[in-house]
Amino acid sequence: MIPKILIAIVLICIQAISFAGEISERAAIMTEVKKGFEQEDFGLLERRYAEMNKNAERLPSGVFKSARMLYGLMAASAIPSDIRGSDDKQRKLQEEHWFAMEKKAERWRRAYPKSSLAPFTQSSAFIQHAYFFRGNRYASEVDPAMWKPFGEYIDRAFNVLVTPENQLIRDQAWYCALIRVAQYQSMEPAQFANLIEEASNKYPGYYEIYFFAADKLAPKWGGSLEAFEWLANLAVKKTQKTEGMALYTRLYWSIAQTDFHDDLLSQTGADWKKMRLGFDDIVKRYPSDWNLNYYAWFACMARDQSTLVRVFKQIGDNIDTTSLWTNPERLNRCRTLAKGEE
Length: 342
Description:
Elements: H1 4-38, H2 42-54, H3 65-76, H4 88-111, H5 117-134, H6 147-159, H7 164-167, H8 172-182, H9 189-202, H10 207-217, H11 225-243, H12 246-260, H13 264-267, H14 272-285, H15 289-301, H16 305-315, H17 328-338
Helix pairs in contact: 1-3, 4-5, 5-6, 5-8, 8-9, 8-10, 10-11, 10-12, 11-12, 12-14, 14-15, 15-16, 16-17
């Protein structure tokens, strides 16, 4: 007879492996991108990005691997943890870091003039350099003298994307970079909407087109809940034949993680019926534990007992207690709801 403790250990390992696929693959892409940029192995990065796009490679959750490369490049040029202080010496080191990152990206752009990743990376470095002056304070708290250098670097972030040679390379990374810059510019709503229409017409199924746009339309950046709902419905309109309602769900899922958390459904215009349909479409194509655990979280948030029971049954023992259900009280509350004991 197998000892009970051994069975428990095996079950824990199975659970960890089941959910770890998503996390480990995301981490592997980030590591590969960071190493490639540090070592200036631009050829490797170009090849990997081309391969991922050509084969439409996805993670178990269904998100595109090439999109994770974009986030990896944004992170690769970030300020190292050992120079994040605010004294004069640290500030000097930080600005030297930005100059170095911008020059490295420029070398990449010159070596691969047809690249979209290189201007994406250089534009990202300019945006982060702009925040060196602005800081992360509320706009009303920013030193007025800092708005000028902030604006100058945002202009550089924009200009590197619209040089004659790069304006022709309007692929996914290029559009994502341009949409991201628009977040920091005083672009008119109609002009921004036209940009989203253009990008989504060309790459309707590329999630990050909508995710980067979501940042601009979020209330904290001067957007509105109505504008966000417009974006979510637009994403569905562009992708319904292949994705169903999935993009509606994925977009609200994205701002739940960054801004609203457990209050998403009570503080936004998110329609749970649409989200539930979207989750069903997601897990039908990508029945990963990552997606199922988040489905359960939202069903609990919506107090949708029947859906919660169904999804918990699909999850079985593969509960993610490492990143999502880290608060035992939340998990217990949702399990209680599923049992009808509330």
